[in-house]
Design a protein that fits this description.
The chain is built from 16 helices and 19 strands. It is α/β, with parallel strands linked by helices. The chain has two domains: 163 residues, Leucine Aminopeptidase, subunit E, domain 1; 320 residues, Aminopeptidase, CATH 3.40.630. GO terms for molecular function: manganese ion binding; metalloaminopeptidase activity.
Length: 502
């Protein structure tokens, strides 16, 4: 999809969207358009009881007085509520309304005089929201493509933002557009089926980041066995697809006094049957996105490098497929992790924590980072606790937890902190090994999972984000179409920008 920015003028034809503030607040351009149509906008808003609330829309077809095919009114709410997130939402809303109406359209960016954002910033954020909503994963829909050739349907391909500070808006959008590229890269990885994306092919996809200055190292099974990643390899041993660990390094701040990187670690189970502790058949196809944490880490490294962030960062993803077979890990097996700690595997469907355990230890041992953040679709229990609105946050450091929470709120990817303490930690004690991989059945499954991970974290700030409830959307929202969300890419990019750049 192509975006352009131009000085404001009333289009003579086609489709135009107009931003409307609360209480039917038309700006100067909207008022001019209303006059040209003989007051059609005012009458339509009154008849439809349209107010201009956030994301409220109203369409006027072929209004008299102009050659326009239609006018779309998009609400942005009260002046004090017009934030970057509100405008991104408006952009996504107008894209959804226009996508099947035409192949190109214009947007009159017309905010109240007392709005906090400049016109340039507003136009860029609206375009960003439209870009995020425009994501489609339809590469395998051959029937639709054949039908389109016979009876092509409109699909919005060009959006022109009309705003006084057009050049400034274009500059502001360039950075956001690069972030959208990173989000789309992550969404694509999660959307691909497991016969296309498996450990080897997912590792190969990360090589694309080298174009932006990311050093990519792929550790194969031979290397993993040599260094002792027994926990991760135990998960992979039932599959014909061999494990990989990908290490991505981006050094964007060589002049920093503290050269230690921030470290991001992602769970990459490219398909999770549950192993010998096999899942039920219903919905198992969803388990292609059990590598969502790894996709977020890859997307974050893409985003940081693409915008040349002044930060040193390392991303590590553990990639395995969890399958039942004659060679698969069994309940009751004991594995030795990279840390030297032993783990009794009670449930082979609690495999993500085994992958992360070795990757967390490797990150600390090799890179000595200033902090670590891991992301994983770790537990179904987090959905019971938080639904699909928040990711679960666990941390051993209050400042880190607060900073992640703040970053999440700024980009509309909220996290909610849950408790950790020794009482939960005792749930994974076992007489057979140093620990077991699940609790004793006392509930709090997400917390127990976090306590397990904490045993592989030394004395440095660490956070675990459980994204099981937010990695995949069952329905459309303003800026996230149904499907892979890439939750966490924007959060971590903002976290770095606000707290670790410079």
């Amino acid at each position: 999809m192509k975006f352009s920015f131009a000085k404001p003028s009333l289009p003579s034809s086609g489709i135009v969207a107009v931003t409307v503030a609360a209480e039917r607040g038309l700006g100067a351009l909207g008022q001019s358009l209303d006059q040209k149509t003989g007051g059609a906008l005012t009458r339509a808003m009154a008849a439809a009881r349209y107010n201009g609330k956030k994301d409220e829309t109203l369409t006027l077809l072929a209004p008299a007085g102009v050659e326009l095919e239609r006018i779309l009114l998009v609400g942005v709410g009260k002046a004090e509520e017009i934030t970057d997130l509100a405008l991104q939402s408006a952009g996504g809303t107008l894209f959804a309304a226009l996508d099947k109406a035409a192949d190109k359209a214009s947007v009159l960016v017309d905010l109240p005089a007392n709005a906090a954002l400049s016109g340039a910033k507003a136009a860029a954020e609206i375009a960003f929201g439209a870009r995020l909503r425009s994501y489609k994963f339809d590469k395998y829909k051959t029937n639709d493509k054949k039908a389109d050739k016979k009876d092509p349907k409109p699909s919005l391909r060009k959006l022109t933002l009309l705003v006084e500070e057009a050049d400034a808006a274009e500059t502001a959008f360039a950075t956001l557009d690069g972030l959208a590229d990173a989000v789309f890269f992550a969404r694509d990885l999660v959307s691909e089926p497991a016969n296309v994306i498996y450990p080897e092919t997912l590792a190969d996809r990360t090589k694309a980041l080298a174009e932006y200055g990311v050093e990519v190292e792929i550790l194969d099974p031979k290397k993993l066995r040599k260094i002792g990643m027994g926990a991760l390899l135990g998960v992979a041993q039932g599959s014909a697809q061999e494990a990989r660990v990908v290490v991505m390094r981006y050094n964007g701040n060589g002049d920093a006094e503290d050269q230690r990187p921030v470290a991001f670690i992602g769970k990459g189970v490219t398909f999770d049957t549950g192993g010998i502790s096999i899942k039920g058949a219903g919905g198992m196809e969803d388990m292609k996105w059990d590598m969502g944490g790894s996709a977020t880490v890859i997307g974050t490294m893409y985003a940081l490098a693409a915008r040349k962030a002044k930060v040193n960062a390392v991303g590590i993803v553990g990639l395995v497929e969890n399958m039942p077979s004659g060679t698969a890990q069994r309940p009751g097996d004991i594995v030795t992790s990279l840390s030297g700690q032993t783990i009794e595997v009670i449930n082979t469907d609690a495999e993500g924590r085994l992958v992360l355990a070795d990757c967390l230890w490797y990150a600390q041992d090799v890179f000595k980072p200033k902090l670590m953040i891991d992301l994983a679709t770790l537990t179904g229990a987090i959905i019971t606790a938080l639904g699909h609105e928040h990711a679960g946050l666990f941390s051993n450091d209050d400042d880190l937890a607060m900073n992640l929470t703040a970053a999440g709120l700024k980009v509309g990817q909220p996290v909610w902190r849950l408790p950790m303490n020794d009482a939960y930690d005792k749930e994974i004690e076992t007489p057979a090994a140093d620990m077991k991989n699940v609790g004793s059945g006392g509930g709090a499954g997400s917390i127990v999972g976090a306590q397990f991970l904490k045993r592989f974290v030394n004395d440095l700030p660490w956070a675990h984000i459980d994204i099981a409830g937010v990695a995949w959307a069952k329905k459309d929202s303003a800026t996230v179409p149904k499907g892979a969300t890439a939750f966490g890419v924007r959060l971590l990019d903002r976290f770095v920008a606000d707290f670790h750049e410079g």
